[in-house]
Design a protein that fits this description.
Structural class: alpha/beta
Strand order of the largest sheet: 3-2-1-4-5-6
Helix content: 25-40%
Number of strands: 13
Radius of gyration: 24 Å
Oligomer: single chain
Strand content: 5-15%
Distance between the termini: 56 Å
Order of helices and strands: EHEHHEEHEHEEHEHHHHHEHEHEHEE
Amino acid sequence: MNLSLDKTKIGIIGLGYVGLPLAVEFGKQFNVIGFDINLGRVKELSEGTDSTLECSSNELNEATYLKFSASVDDLKECNVYIVTVPTPIDDHKQPDLTPLIKASGMLGKVLSKGDIIIYESTVYPGATEEECIPIVEHISGFTFNKDFYAGYSPERINPGDKEHRITNILKVTSGSTPEIAEYVDQLYKKIIKAGTHKASSIKVAEAAKVIENTQRDVNIALINELSIIFNKLDIDTLEVLEAAGTKWNFLPFRPGLVGGHCIGVDPYYLTHKAQAVGYHPEMILAGRRLNDGMGQYVVSQLVKKMLKKRIQVDDANVLVMGLTFKENCPDLRNTKVVDIVAELKEYNINVDVLDPWCSNEEAQREYGLKLSVEIKSGYYDAVILAVSHDEFKAMGVDTIKGFGKSNHVLYDLKYVLDKADVDMRL
């Protein structure tokens, strides 16, 4: 393998929240083909627009060596391929490697001898070499670590975060041989100002990624459980956390809904592999069960409060403010607000959902939800502040309370408003 950095031509497979920022940064220095099977996505990016809002038009224009394509043939020009396709879970909470397997099969058709495939998609330890590489070998007819090579560099993209961008987040790298590991590391160092950490193997890099979000998931589950306990004790959770937070080593987690493409998904990849090798993980799955049940818990608390205020629950009108999985971001993947909406409907409650960040088309396509455009003042029996978008913060307490009837419940899940101004906080 005599591939040098100055002869590198990169193909980025998948132009979502992970792939596009990567393609833009590499496209400032290297010839890059940004590939996606979604023709609409390729068209909008070619016209200088990013509907995910991760990259501005100026940022797209700065990537002077970047071209977008939906043609597999265009990838044949490349000698390094970086795979950034989604790795979701199925309805049974099992890893769904379908996008990764399809991408690997596609690359097997365009691969040339000496090429490198770098995977960034989150997987369980061993998936790259046990699941992806055999597919590439079978379709290409090449031998791994002789005719082609692999690397793994887990993505650390935080959708909607304009402070922690790809260039200033330290990057873990790895390769299938020591020489490839060094090449992959040097390649990423070209764009990652924060530096890199070269792991000793692909499996170590895979494991590092999957535990980053598992750790956060378990910690948030603990705080969610504490919030449930404190609610029963009639103690304000935020006040407790602020008091405990005065100790220098207390971790600043907050209770809430755990959604998105990482924290609510990645632990299932690790537990799947653990069970495959004969170990049943206790703490990780307990945390998952608790976090997955928070939507149901929120609605149960809301209904109890409505009954205490003598508000009829059946056929009540409830406004849910926010649908995306986090604030100031249009990403709807695995949002747990839909659990709240579904649970409210189980009580025969009429639900309006307001979210200025996500498109009505995507909400209908993904969840069958029609977003509300005009919100009636003095109409709702309850208002749930589910996502802390800046637009909601700017409304102020009077406007938000004004959505409700004279007797209504205001439930603030995100601590947007002062304790004295709301009926309930998580």
